[in-house]
Design a protein that fits this description.
Two copies of one chain form a homodimer.
Chain A lengths: L4 E3 L10 E6 L12 E16 L7 H9 L4 E11 L7 H16 L6 E8 L7 H12 L6 H7 L8 E9 L2 E10 L12 E6 L5 H14 L15 E6 L13 H23 L7 E9 L2 H13 L1 H8 L6 H8 L11 E6 L2 E7 L2 E2 L4 H8 L3 E7 L5 E8 L3 H8 L4
Parallel strand pairs in A: 4-5, 8-9, 10-14
Antiparallel strand pairs in A: 1-6, 2-3, 3-4, 3-9, 6-7, 7-8, 10-15, 11-12, 11-14, 12-13
Helix pairs in contact in A: 1-2, 2-3, 5-6, 7-9
Chain lengths: 408, 408
């Protein structure tokens, strides 16, 4: 993480040689909502993906797995409004989407990453793609990243785009991405939909390794509601147009690349958690002083997954007993009698528990701290040096409202 | 399950030789709310308990474990309003409660099961018990079960009491109990608070075996919010006053006893799920056709734990994709392409998914079926003969409201 980098605009098209578009092609009834994104690289890219571990998988996952099996891809097509999951003709639809990309962009159907997000088990046809693909392809441009980010949104309230610039062997590189939440978010090995592009040159094997490790530390530490989606996918395309020497093994360049990838993914996690369905607050839990990284991760993730804790944070209630309770059932092997807990926000810090027992604190200060829209729950385990962060959000009336009638 | 039994009134005092009381002794500020229950048997009882697996355990758990280590006990003391958990002097308080029971009832302090429920990490003193124990003891009576049931309630809206009568070797026996929910309910090997009594004669070893098995099939298949409490406990006292030959080994009598215990515990689960925090509906999931019982349990429990499914049920939205999604991430090894799903209530049955894919159904009928206050999600796995039921509830605005400001 010593390599310098800085955030830049551009998201999914921040890297050289990528163009994107996003339009309404008729999958959704609401004509004002873009529902299909297309992203294309000027040249063939090393490609890596992580997929949901849910046994119920969207048909696009199977088609994408086949298409990137050789380590390369060049385009991404993704619709919102229908997950193309639990449909009898799902694979046919997903393959049809890839063929339409080939017809209108010249990218081979076998070099397309295909994804869908929306309602599960809803009939789907190729008709909107047949109608809309020509315009999607014609609209591709180097400034089209925001349209693509808008087109993949479901219940998200803001588009999620991040990019960074960094250098590899004196060459300026960019890496950016877009993602969508905002419910059914509890990644397991992969996550919701996230598409990443970079102009760095890196071999498919090293790209896969970097993505797998970064996903473990970012998207797999994110939860909105404990439900692992059927369509989760993170994919990254690297077209090498930055001109750096191709990364083919571990070393300083690989570390710099991974650090850039981590920054983009962590920032997207933060944005997705804060925009979780119905969320009014970003809740992070930072577990420090753990004996090992797995313990730190188990603790941090259990805390941000607790419905009770999430509801207390919505109410700005310093009910720290729920933090200890969630640590206790996390499965992590911790010494409860050593745990300290603080609530932290830009309004201040309030210590509520030392060595596993409650300590007196100002309820007024606690209310002020917890009334902010970004809260960190700092858990000190006092057992070692490892630490981890997990990202989540509060549980609100609006989560229930959104999900009480999602299909209509 | 062939032995006949029938439900009878009386709850925790339905069995011969048990008396109970419940009063306000000053733990809660609201004087109208009873906050301490006392249950005493005329004679020493075989005793068995299951405890929470949360690493953060209420102090009363440790004291109870010590007191029932010899297999016997005679009284139960339980307060609500304070969980006596994460308090520096917790064990001292719990032991003090037992000593006060001894002073005022003559039951040895080492024969007392002690439990507390309420806010975690809140300072607690013995003062209310010192003031109130005399009256609690003086109020003990064979009709006091309802008062005890009221006194252990926290956010419960109804008292939960169940009892059955059955026969062992020609002797009429009774078995009954009380329990409290209604949040932080996701039992793991044990559950919230449930106290059971019976006049059947059974050895401590067989009582423990029966309780362990029944808890696995009942309380461990119950979830309100996915949070395993720090104070969960199920305990049963058997005083033998029915006069049956003591059950000391497996056989017909043991099976009859276990069937009665199952009926009481399953009914209490149903009541707790329906009265889950903020719940407007009881949601059960019955998984049938599983290759084995563990698979059936994993599937049924995953479905009733899904926040997304729970919110959809609140909205009477037949979003069956969420049922398949929850099965898919349950960890159970199932063939998705064989799964059928139906929504069932007293208003009718609606089939929504066959062989893993959606089928056309009447949205109107689905709305009618799902607008009832007891919904069963019938999952047919078509892979074997095993089945299991899990009990849960919907996720509502009121759950968020209750837990947004629980401490005040």
């Amino acid at each position: 993480m010593s390599e310098p980098f800085s955030f830049i605009p551009g998201g999914i098209v921040a890297a050289k040689g990528f163009q994107a578009s996003g339009e309404h092609i008729g999958i959704r009834k609401n004509r004002a909502k873009k529902d299909c994104a297309l992203i294309v690289s000027d040249t063939l890219c090393a490609a890596a993906c992580c997929y949901t571990q849910n046994l119920v998988k969207g048909a696009p996952i199977a088609v994408t797995q086949a298409n990137v099996a050789n380590g390369y891809a060049r385009a991404i097509i993704c619709n919102s409004g229908n997950a193309n999951t639990c449909n009898a003709n799902g694979v046919e639809i997903a393959e049809g989407m890839c063929k339409l990309v080939e017809q209108h962009t010249g990218v081979g159907a076998g070099d397309v990453i295909v994804a869908s997000t929306g309602v599960i088990g809803q009939e789907m046809t190729l008709a909107p793609f047949e109608t809309g693909m020509a315009s999607l392809a014609a609209s591709l441009r180097a400034e089209g990243g925001h349209d693509a980010a808008l087109a993949i949104m479901t219940t998200d309230t803001i588009a999620k785009e991040v990019a960074v610039t960094f250098t590899l062997g004196g060459k300026t590189c960019a890496l950016g991405g877009i993602s969508k939440g905002s419910g059914m978010i509890h990644p397991n090995m992969a996550t919701m939909l996230c598409f990443l592009t970079t102009d760095a040159a890196i071999s498919p094997a090293m790209l896969r390794a970097a993505l797998a490790q970064v996903v473990r530390d970012t998207f797999n530490m994110l939860s909105v509601d404990g439900d692992t989606s059927t369509n989760d996918m993170v994919s990254v395309l690297a077209n090498g147009m930055a001109g750096n020497a191709e990364i083919t093994e571990a070393g300083a360049d690989y570390d710099a690349f991974k650090a850039a990838l981590y920054q983009v993914c962590a920032q997207l996690c933060r944005m997705m958690a804060k925009d979780g369905e119905g969320a009014s607050k970003l809740i992070t839990c930072t577990a420090t002083g753990a004996r090992d990284i797995d313990t730190a991760k188990q603790v941090a993730k259990s805390v941000i997954c607790s419905n009770l804790l999430k509801a207390a944070m919505f109410g700005a209630d310093a009910n720290w007993g729920r933090v200890l309770c969630a640590i206790g059932y996390s499965g992590a092997d911790v010494d409860v009698q050593r745990i300290d807990v603080q609530f932290v926000s830009r309004a201040g810090v309030v210590s509520v528990c030392t060595a596993g027992s409650g300590i007196p604190f100002s309820e007024e200060l606690a209310k002020t701290v917890l009334s902010e829209d970004e809260i960190d729950i700092a858990v000190q385990l006092n057992a070692g040096e490892a630490q981890a962060t997990a990202w989540g959000c509060d549980l609100t009336y609006d989560y229930v409202k959104i999900n009480g009638d999602y299909r209509t």
